[in-house]
Design a protein that fits this description.
29% strand; single chain; alpha+beta
Length: 117
Amino acid sequence: SSGINAEYGEDRLWTIFVGGLHGKLYAQALFTIFNNLFKHVVSVKIDTDEHNYPTGSGSIKFSNRKSYIKAINANYIEVKTSTFGPKSIEIQHYMEDELCCVCQNVPGRKFCKTEMF
């Protein structure tokens, strides 16, 4: 066992949805932005259409639940680069990837945005 999220009884990654992405924002830049802000980013995927053009959404996986919760609680971030002006990126969770916030054992319909201690 690698110990990722061992306090939750299993090795897993925590996934968020990001929306409102600028077409010129590449996965590596998104990785750097989110890793600098929230830490523990392990992968970034930008969604594309059937012609391989970006759709303006994507997903980011974290290896740490606290980083994941911190990102979700941000709700959005403002990004400004030399390529494009200020752009708000929406941050949400993937419900189908989330464990029930009550039992933490099975995918559930109840998601808690704050850490339960």
